[in-house]
Fold:
Amino acid sequence: MVDLPYIIPVDPTSAMLEPEDIEAECAASDGRLPRPELWPGDIVADQYEVRGALAHGGMGWIYLAVDHNVSDRWVVLKGLLHADQAEAQEVAVAEREILAELSHPSIVRIYNFIHDDWATSPTHGGYIVMEYVGGPSLRDVRRAAPGRVLPVEKAIAYVLEVLQALSYLHSVGLVYNDLKPENIMLTEDHVKLIDMGAVSGVGDYGHIYGTPGFQAPEIPRTGPTIASDLYTVGRTLASLIVRLPVVDGRYANGIPSPMEEPVFSRYDSLYRFLLRSTHEEPDSRFRSANGMANQLMGVLREVLALRTGVPHPAFSSVFSPQRSTFGTLFTVEPTDFLVDGRARDTTLTGSELVDALPVPLMEASDPASRILAATSYTSVEQRIDTLLELYSDTESEARESVGVIMSLTRAYLESDDLAAAEALLEENAHRMPAEWRLVWYDGVTDLLKGDPVGAYPKFQRVLSAMPGENGPKLALAATAELILDVCPESDRARWARSSEHFYRTVWSVDRSVISSAFGLARQLQRRGEVKSAIEELDRVPPNSRYSALANLTAILLLCQGRPLDETEESHLREAARRVTNLSAGEHRAFQIRLTVLTTALAWVQLPGNEPSPSPLMRGVPFTEFGLRSGAETVLRTLARSTETRQQRFRLVDQANSIRPRTLF
Structure:
C-alpha cells in the first residue's frame, strides 16, 4: 500500500569514523567515553581484520571488520559484557546460542561469538560478530526529511516490518529491549534490526539495556517483557512522525496532544494507537506484536484513505462484518405515504442500531472456544442453560473465559433479558479495563436501555483499545446521532461534529459499509451541505444493492434538502434528469417523480421564479400548467395500482385537486 524508497547500497568504509572525529567525541565526553580498544589493522581471533570504528553503543565501541575466513565479507564487531558468576555465564552462553540460531529477514544475522580470551578488560565479555548492514538508519532518514519527521504512512510501513521481527523474537521467548530509530537499518529489500546485544529472555533481570525516552517505565520492576518491548514500538513510531519534546537530553515521557500536534488532530486513530502503545500500565497495552500490527495496519488504511480519497478496506480479525444496514430508508421511506397514506417513523433507535452493528469475535486462544462453537446453533434458551452451566463451574477453565461471558451476555440480550445481561456485566466489571469486548457489550446494553449518552464513552473505550477497527467508529457515529435527538440545543453542534467525523472515517476506508454513507449524508444535510451529501451518496458503488436507494435519496435531497427559497432551477432539473434515468424496475419511481413535480410546482409559484423554457422532463413543460398536468398523471397512475379502494379514492381526490384548471 505504501511505496518505500529503494535504498542504494553504500561503501561500508564510508560509514567509519575518522580518527580525529573519535578523538573529538572522547574529548567532549569529559572522560565518560573511553577510547576504542581496537584500531585499524588489529586482527581479532585470527580471523577478523578491524578497519575502523562505526559508533559507540551502550556496551562499547562498534567496529567494522573483514572476515578473512569467509570470502572477505564485511562484518561488525560489538562488545559483550562479561558474566562473572557461573550461573550468569551459563545463562549468557544459552542466550548466545539462541541468538546464533535466529533467522528472520528483518533481524541482523549473528555469525559468531568471540569469547573471554579476547576480552580487553575484566568486565569485557568478548565480541559478537554480526552481519554488516549497509544503508541508513531510520534516525538518519528522519533527520534528512523535511521538518525532520517522516510522512505518517511511511513511518507506519517501516514499523509494521519491525513488528514482524519482534513477533518472531517473542515467539522464541526473547525480547529486543532497545528499539529506537538508530537501531533500525534500511536495506534494499527490508528493514533490519541491528544491535542484538540487548536481547534477553522474557523476564530476565541483570544487565538490561535500553534507551531513556524509549524504555518502558516498569522495566526495573518487571524486567523485560513483551509489553515493555511493545512500549518501545510506540515510542519509536511517535519519534518518527512528530518532534517529541526533549528534557535533559532525552525524549520526555508521554505523547503530545492533538492540540500540540496537528497530525494527531487529522488522524485520531493514530493518536489512540500511540496512547495505548505507550500506556503506563503494561496490562493496558497491546498483548502481542501481531495484535499490535493488525491495529496499526488498520490505522494505516485509515490514514491513506483520508489522505488520498481512495478506500482501503479489509476484513477485521476481531469484529464480524456489519450484520445489516440502518438509516438507509430515512429519506426515501416517507414518500411511501404518497401511495398508501401511512406515515413512517424514521427516527433511529437503539435496538435498530444494535441489530445492525458488527459484534466482537472471540479470541482463538479463548479456553472455551471449542465448546462455544458447538452451542452457536442451538436455541437461545438452550444456549443460556449451557452457558450458565459453564460460567457457574468454578473448577472449569471456562470460568475464566471472556468468550463465555460475551456469549451469555449476547444470549440474554437476544432474549430481551436486559436485567440479567446488566447483572452479568456488573459482576465482571473488574475485568473490563483489560477486556474491551466486555466494554462493547456494556455499551450495547446501554443502547438497548435507551441511554446513548451512557453508551458513547464505552464505545470510546473500545476504540481506544482497537483504534484500527471500523466497528467502534460506526457505533460512535450512530450513537452520537442518537444523542442528537435528546441533547440540549447547546450541545447539538458537538454531537453533530462527532457523528459526521466517525461516519466520514468509516465511509472513507470502506465503501461496503453503506450505513456510513447515508449517515454522513444526513449529517452533511443537517448543516446545509446538500451538495456534499449528494456527492457522498454518489460514491456508493454501482454494483451495490443500495446504489439505487442512494440515487433516490440524492433525488429527494436535490428537491427537498434545502428550504424552497434556497432551491435553484438547476437542482430541480438535476433531480428530474435522475428520475428520467431510473431503471424500469424501480418500484418507487412514480412517487419520487411525483415529489419532484410537486416541489417544482411549489418553486414555480414563488414570486420571481421564471424557469427557462425547456421541459423539466419529457412531456412535462416547466410551467405551472405542465407541472400540474404531470403530477395529475402520476397520481392517477398510482391510483390504478393501489391495493384498496380507500387508497384509490384518496389518490384520485389528490389528482383532482392538483390538476390544472380548465374550461372543460
